């Protein structure tokens, strides 16, 4: 826990020198039923699951295209 706090403090205090290394990436599952936000800090990354409300809005934009439903016979 102390190591995580030390790393977070170091990243926050290092200023704009690492701004190009920070990135947030939205990711959807293959079935578009779950979404995550990946926060990349250089080579390290943390993920957080997105709520269902945002999954419905985000996955059609960044997720995998779903095949059209087959007509019922």
Describe this structure as you would to a colleague.
This protein is of the alpha+beta class and 73 residues long. It has a domain at 17-62. It has helices spanning 2-13, 52-62; strands spanning 22-28, 35-41, 44-49. It has a 3-stranded antiparallel β-sheet. β2 (35-41) and β3 form a beta hairpin. The model has no long low-confidence stretch (mean pLDDT 75).
How many helical stretches? 2
Structural class comes to alpha+beta
- Rounded radius of gyration (Å): 17 Å
Beta-strand portion reads 25-35%
- End-to-end distance: 58 Å
Walk me through the topology.
Blueprint (H helix, E strand, L loop, with lengths): L1 H12 L8 E7 L6 E7 L2 E6 L2 H11 L11
Antiparallel strand pairs: 1-2, 2-3
Question: Can you summarize this structure?
Answer:
The protein is α+β, with helices and mostly antiparallel strands. The chain has helices at residues 2-13, 52-62; strands at residues 22-28, 35-41, 44-49.
Give the key terms:
2 helices; 73 residues; 32% helix
